[in-house]
Specification:
Chain lengths: ~280, ~300
Amino acid sequence: MSQQKITFESPSFFKRLKSMLSVDFYRLFHTPLFYIFLAIAAIIPAMLIGMTNMTGPNGEPTQPLFTNVWQAIAADTPIYGFEGIEKYANMNMVFIFGGIMVSIFIGHDYKSGYVKQLFTTHAKKEDYMISKTLACAFAMASMCISYILGAVLAGALTQTSFAVNVGNLIFAVLGKIFMSLGWASLYTFLNVIFRKYFGISIASSFFFGTGILVIGVGAMVGNTPVLNLFLYGSSVFACLSSTAVNALVCLLTSVFWAVVYNAVGSLVLYRSDVY
Amino acid sequence: MNAIEIKNLSKSFRGMYALKNFNMTVPMGSIYGFIGENGSGKSTTEKLICGHLVADSGEIKLFGKEYTDAGVRVRVGALIENAGCFPSSSIYANLKMQALNLGLENIDEEIHRVLKIVRMEDSINIKFKSCSLGMKQRIGIAMALLGSPSLLILDEPINGLDTDGMRIMREILVDITKTYGCTVLISSHILGELEKIATHYGIIKQGQMIQEISAKEMESRARVFVSLKTADMQGAEKALKAKFTNVKVEDGYLRVYDVDQTETIVETLLKSGHVVSEVRKNRVGLEEYYVQLMSKGGK
């Protein structure tokens, strides 16, 4: 038997990350999960807007949920406490369904045992966290776009008003899309923490995704911009009266939490058994 | 340089030690048969080497470098327990993901190369969940072989396979080790199969290495014996015990240990009126060596 001449070349962080990202994006595009959630994201606003023009049992018009298509994308003003379904039911719901998608996406890594293959080779724990966060953020951002397309199509079909300040709308949409990164990092973190318990991963993602904690605090302390420090707060802050400041706040909050969750998640993975 | 060097490694699960001050040395280029009872710590050791578990204490070096070094890790391929594949994805997609993870170039070429080694070139588009256990194990090996690793860690690759599956797997393993010359750490319960390929052995008991030995050394240490059959086994045993110190009836044969003079034994029996119907010179194999070692308490 001949002995191999071995050379060791440590791949750089960027090379490692590129490898991991290639795996995650390949998986994302080659499994039905991503496309199913894109479809779900498009169906939700269509259903909400469809409800706008519904009639009562005697044919009388009901109180419309939205008077404008873009209200299905974001609320007119940032309202952190719960003030009725029409203020709550907007593109923020993508982040709830996105959480379930991330749970399934990451959960399958552990359920199938594929994570063994990843960590046997050169992949470091931080590569895993960052790559999963970025791939899932991309998936959620895509869901946001799918949501908008669903809303526009349903609005056109139901002849709902499209009147809006385009600048405000662009900043609101940008803000929501920026938030995908922060939400994806939270869900990646939760799924790493509960990696041995698939059901708890999904339940925890759903729980945090609803923004129930911020809504609760909002109900107690009122509409305070301090709540923008949190993911749900900033997601609400991206509203139809948004300016560049709103979008910037969303970006900063999102990046801040992404860094925090990735750092803590990597630390957890380094200090505990993979499975 | 050793491929694997482990010093004083300990790992516990909820206060119970799976490994305690465990030491191991796997020479480079060897096929290291890792043997031990169920729960002795074989899989734990392999998972620690692969970085799946976090050790309580101790040191693991691969090719003289820290085992977490990315440059070293990229040279490791493993099949631990089962092939970690996505059931609904095809064999090709699963292999492609691992090839991407390794950052390989010429991915399709590489996938076809490893599938050829494990004799599965024609199954490339089959979904993983549709594969038999034997096929799944072979896919696991193919996955571990991507990128031509310098160290291959295989945890019970033969377990659960039927006779034909075992034969194919053995042929694949012999092929890999002879052709590609990488260091292989392989754990198995099927010692007869292991004996055919291993160049070194490590025997683990209750989380501690009790013996590391090369196949050559084991052969020289292994006791020789003459086994024979006569019509009257009890009478023959009595006659032989008068002349030889270590005579036993085992597995329906009369065994005379530590003696290789077949002629003297046959002559002794003939003189005492016993006709020998079958006689064979033998050496204690891996399985018996292992059983004897364990019965001595691993000393």
